[in-house]
């Protein structure tokens, strides 16, 4: 992008409420209903802390269920967050909708989840820097997906008919970005926490 085309950055965190049986359900066999919910809450709080610490611009929490659900007030989250609702549809539809809304409002977006504890403020700043000279950026994860996608403009092809939660996601996303004639920056591969085997990546204090 030319310097004159630089847009403000908005970090949007896609988050499920850390309710038992609702978030991190694939960890229930290992951690139980309450343990999975507690870890989901820690991952959410960590993601918010790192997004705010990156100091790149507005941080938005895009949530399910709606921001009006009482669970969100119980969590006592930072007041500087802005809020939105993911609404209906599969993951790709919800992500595409958030990206379209933000980018059509004149901002670039870093859209991240809450599953990747290594996605810290430094990595977010690196993603912002990479996006300044590319059409898109990704932070890939070891299972073949990604924990963050950054865009200046909507690119619905990378979200449509995607086999989410499979190892094909990252490669298909790369192929579709290239097919659209867009440039892509990729950052270091990180790990995310989805299934019981992933818990080995977490230090003990995450389970206290």
How would you describe the overall organization of this protein?
This protein is α/β, with parallel strands linked by helices and 208 residues long. The protein has one domain: Alpha-Beta Complex (Spore Coat Polysaccharide Biosynthesis Protein SpsA, Chain A), CATH 3.90.550. Strand 1, helix 1 and strand 2 form a beta-alpha-beta unit. The N and C termini lie far apart (45 Å).
Reconstruct the topology from this structure.
Elements: E1 9-16, H1 28-54, E2 59-64, H2 70-74, E3 82-85, H3 91-103, E4 108-112, H4 121-131, E5 136-140, E6 146-151, H5 169-179, E7 184-186
Parallel strand pairs: 1-2, 1-4, 2-3, 5-7
Antiparallel strand pairs: 4-6, 5-6
User: Class in CATH?
Assistant: Alpha Beta
Helix content: 25-40%
Point out poorly predicted stretches. Answer: none
Mean pLDDT: 93
Instruction: Output the radius of gyration.
Output: 16 Å
Q: What is the general shape?
A: globular
Which strand-content bin applies to the residues?
15-25%
Number of strands: 7
CATH superfamily: Spore Coat Polysaccharide Biosynthesis Protein SpsA, Chain A
**Which structural class is indicated by helix and strand composition?**
alpha/beta
Q: Distance between the terminal alpha carbons, to the nearest Å?
A: 45 Å
Which fold name fills CATH's third level, the topology? Spore Coat Polysaccharide Biosynthesis Protein SpsA, Chain A
Tally the structural domains. Answer: 1
Total DSSP helices: 5
Proper CATH architecture: Alpha-Beta Complex
Largest sheet: 7 strands, mixed
What is the N-to-C order of secondary-structure elements (H for helix, E for strand)?
EHEHEHEHEEHE
Order of adjacent strands in the largest pleated sheet: 3-2-1-4-6-5-7
């Amino acid at each position: 992008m030319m310097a004159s085309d630089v847009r403000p950055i908005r970090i949007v965190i896609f988050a499920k409420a850390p309710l038992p049986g609702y978030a991190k359900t694939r960890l229930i066999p290992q951690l139980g209903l309450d343990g999975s919910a507690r870890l989901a809450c820690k991952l959410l709080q960590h993601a918010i802390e790192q997004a705010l610490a990156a100091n790149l611009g507005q941080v938005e929490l895009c949530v399910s269920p709606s921001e009006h659900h009482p669970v969100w007030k119980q969590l006592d989250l930072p007041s500087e967050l802005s809020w939105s609702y993911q609404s209906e549809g599969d993951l790709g539809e919800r992500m595409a909708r958030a990206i379209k809304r933000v980018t059509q409002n004149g901002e670039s977006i870093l859209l991240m989840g809450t599953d990747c504890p290594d996605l810290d403020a430094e990595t977010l700043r690196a993603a912002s820097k990479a996006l300044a000279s590319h059409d898109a950026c990704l932070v890939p994860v070891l299972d073949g997906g990604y924990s963050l996608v950054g865009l200046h403009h909507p690119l619905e092809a990378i979200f449509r008919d995607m086999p989410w939660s499979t190892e094909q996601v990252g490669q298909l996303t790369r192929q579709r970005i290239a097919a659209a004639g867009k440039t892509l920056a990729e950052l270091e591969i990180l790990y995310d926490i989805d299934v019981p085997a992933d818990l080995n990546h977490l230090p003990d204090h995450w389970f206290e």
